[in-house]
Amino acid sequence: MRSIQQVASELGLGPRDLFTYGDQMAKLRLPAWGDEPGSARLVLVTAMSPSPAGEGKTTVAIGLTDALRRMGARAVVALREPSMGPVFGKKGGGTGGGRAQLWPAERINLHFTGDLHAVTSAHNLLAAALDNHLHFGNALDLDVRRLTFRRVMDQNDRALRQIVVGLGGRHQGIPREDRFDITAASEVMAVLALSRDYADLKKRLGRIIVGLDRSGRPVTASSLEVEGAMAALLSDALMPNLAQTIEGTPALVHCGPFANIAHGTSSVVATRLALQQAEVVVQEAGFGAELGAEKFLDIFCRELGRFPNLAVVVATRRALTLHGLDNLKAHLELLERFGLPTLVALNEMEGDPPDELDLPHVPVRVYQEGGEGALALARQVLESGPPAAVRPAYELNASLVDKISSLATGVYGADGVEYTPRARTQLEECASFGYGGAYVCVAKTQSSLSDDPRRPGRPRGFKLGVRSVYLLGGAGFVVPLCGEIMTMPGLGKHPNYEEIDLSPDGVVTGI
């Protein structure tokens, strides 16, 4: 593998721009670039609804970027950092596979440069500050029955979904119900991924709402005077991480929000750097287009200041068998409504039957062949036009109810929305707090276009069920929780940690 200094030089970055972690990983110091979004071609990699094993968006994104570099383009791939929840759970590592993967894969999957630990620490510092404030008299008059800020950890653990804290007497805190979410669902993670610089990071952290006071008004992190310390914990984490593919292509790997419960793509600072220093930027957004691509276009690109040139929609025989061709067509129609040109990449696996997909597409074999297996796709990407004139799914000045309705009917194909009384009250509160113009970031299952994971394909005749709504003031999101979506996953009966091991000579295996 090339040294990380050589990889950085391909992006026009020198030793002073790097904070290195050995020979093959580095952080890129702020500011190593300007404030403008840049003029490179931006390619979104999304997918049809996935099978439980996923459809290889990361693998295709890496292989496509390798192919572009083989063709002489100065290309970079922008990916999310893996969470150790999936790594030790069902899905496994998040660095691609076969001949299309990141290097060093094991280090990236396990701890990497410590960003997810920093997010966990900053988040839990605010949780500790909240309980400390309650212990010392509650001068802000917080209603302990209406606290909304939870704790997080970067691991799947269903036992922490509902807990009680503060037991043990008057010196151990105020007894109350609490819970843990996975770090990828942390508002601090969303804030980190959307912040433009250190000042923006601190401002957004200060806007995080921890609960309501007894008069029903929001209390924020800035009221607890903790946002400065949180920002200090995140000072290194805001710097994008530079690694490489096994073909030596530059890879910016930064932040890790899940697309089913957050906005599901890499950071604004990483993409902005890539767009300034490269000719083509390939960026993956999580799960199917109704989740990752929608949030990429409606949230991330608005914050970034520009839209992509086209989208690559990944499909596999496995997903087509599970969901049917109508599901793929639904995602293509969705992107067409956004006004975004699309290419279908059929990610071929060993043992697949002959290619007879009755739809224009490009076969790719990146797992088996690396960049060589995506050259045909790369040629079409290089022929793409200027950035698309994207039509967002909703206008920011629309009401929250209208925004959710637009997503339900125009993106998921629902006949409407059903709210619980609690959810309606929470929506009204969000608007009364001044967040009527916020983004809507729906949390729902990735296994179906609907909110029911048992309905694959292209469900019809359903209504989107919103059971509750919560407000992420720092990120600028209103989050409707739909169906039975969980913000703290559990481990399966045979989790991936059973296969992971450390050899006597210190080599990690099984990821």
Structural write-up:
The model has no long low-confidence stretch (mean pLDDT 95). The protein starts with a helix and ends with a strand. Helix 2 (57-70) crosses helix 14, helix 5 packs across helix 6 and helix 7 (198-206) crosses helix 8. Strands 1, 2, 3, 4, 5, 6, 14, 15, 16, 17, 18 and 19 form a 12-stranded mixed β-sheet that branches. Strands 20-22-23-21 form a 4-stranded mixed β-sheet. A 3-stranded antiparallel β-sheet has the order 7-12-13, with helices on one face. By secondary structure, it is of the alpha/beta class. It is built from 16 helices and 25 strands.
Summarize the structure.
This protein has 511 residues and is of the alpha/beta class. 31% of the residues lie in helices and 21% in strands.
Query: Distance N terminus to C terminus?
Result: 20 Å
Q: How would you characterize the largest beta sheet?
A: 12 strands, mixed
Assigned CATH superfamily of the largest domain = P-loop containing nucleotide triphosphate hydrolases
Number of domains: 3
The pLDDT mean sits at 95
Helix segment tally:
16
Task: Summarize the SSE layout with pairings.
Layout: H1 4-9, E1 18-21, E2 25-28, E3 41-47, H2 57-70, E4 75-79, H3 84-88, E5 96-97, E6 100-103, H4 105-109, H5 115-135, E7 142-147, E8 151-153, E9 163-165, E10 176-178, E11 180-182, H6 187-194, H7 198-206, E12 209-213, E13 218-220, H8 227-233, E14 241-245, E15 250-253, H9 268-277, E16 280-284, H10 289-304, E17 310-315, H11 317-323, H12 325-338, E18 342-347, E19 362-364, H13 366-369, H14 375-382, H15 400-410, E20 417-419, H16 421-432, E21 439-440, E22 464-472, E23 477-482, E24 501-502, E25 508-509
Parallel strand pairs: 3-16, 3-17, 4-15, 4-16, 8-11, 17-18, 18-19, 20-22, 21-23
Antiparallel strand pairs: 1-2, 2-14, 5-6, 6-14, 7-12, 9-10, 12-13, 14-15, 22-23, 24-25
Helix pairs in contact: 2-14, 5-6, 5-8, 7-8, 10-12
